[in-house]
């Protein structure tokens, strides 16, 4: 069976729109695999930071991305044998990820690795360009948005729940800068794919968003 015949649901949207949780929940409901493509950009960023590379060292970072020594084991992620699932969530790593993600060579180094996640019985993929670039033939595409203030508050709450410090106004301005970079870059900018359904999660619960995505999937003949 060709990879193209494996169904994919793509869920793209800005940071902290709820994509990660919705993706995991939809994948669980369908019994499908899950791809958190942002984790690959974050892993590349963390790897570059540990090698003391600056975000401008794009050639070196593209080489690192092409042979990223990463192993996914359930919720655990190992980079060069070290468990980094929490470390890649740091704001500093997210900011570096967003900067290097604007580079075409780094993006193309990660392309096939993302497509390799497409396995039976199906894949739910979350990111910025899942529906536009990585899986353009996906039968269902979702563009998940939310007001930037609602997203900053969610992120601050998540950090505090993990016992980490959270400065709401710093988070808000970082998020606005990241949104601007993600939507205005020339390489795979964050835009809704053609035929994508846009869901605004600002005033919806996770359950409501998950139910809406599953309803779109079930409505496909
Ligand atoms: O989704 P997450 O915040 O973990 O992604 C980290 C960064 O990686 C984003 O700010 C974005 O710039 C980049 N990214 C991307 N394309 C993807 C996934 C993430 O450019 N498919």
TrEMBL record:
The enzyme's E.C. designation: 2.7.4.25
CDD domains associated with the record: CMPK (cd02020)
Entry-linked Gene3D superfamilies: P-loop containing nucleotide triphosphate hydrolases
InterPro entries: Cytidylate_kin, Cytidylate_kinase_dom, P-loop_NTPase
Name of encoding gene: cmk
Protein name per the record: Cytidylate kinase
Gene Ontology terms for molecular function: ATP binding; dCMP kinase activity
Keyword Transcription regulation in record: no
């Amino acid at each position: 069976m060709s990879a193209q015949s494996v169904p994919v649901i793509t869920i793209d949207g800005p940071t902290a729109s709820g994509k990660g949780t919705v993706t995991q929940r939809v994948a669980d409901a369908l019994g499908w695999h899950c791809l958190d493509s942002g984790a690959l950009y974050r892993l590349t960023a963390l790897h570059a930071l540990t090698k003391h590379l600056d975000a401008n060292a794009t050639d070196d970072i593209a080489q690192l991305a092409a042979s990223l020594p990463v192993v996914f084991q359930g919720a655990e992620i190992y980079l060069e044998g070290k468990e980094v699932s929490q470390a890649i969530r740091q704001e500093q790593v997210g900011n570096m990820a967003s900067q290097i993600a604007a580079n075409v060579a780094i993006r193309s180094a990660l392309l096939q690795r993302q497509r390799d996640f497409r396995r039976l019985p199906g894949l739910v993929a979350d990111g910025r360009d899942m529906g536009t670039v990585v899986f353009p033939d996906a039968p269902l595409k979702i563009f998940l948005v939310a007001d930037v203030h609602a997203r900053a508050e969610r992120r601050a709450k998540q950090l505090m729940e993990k016992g980490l410090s959270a400065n709401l106004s710093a988070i808000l301005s970082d998020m606005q800068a990241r949104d601007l970079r993600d939507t205005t870059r020339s390489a795979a900018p964050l835009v809704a794919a053609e035929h994508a359904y846009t869901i605004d999660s600002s005033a919806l619960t996770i359950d409501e968003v998950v139910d809406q995505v599953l309803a779109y999937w079930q409505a496909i003949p």
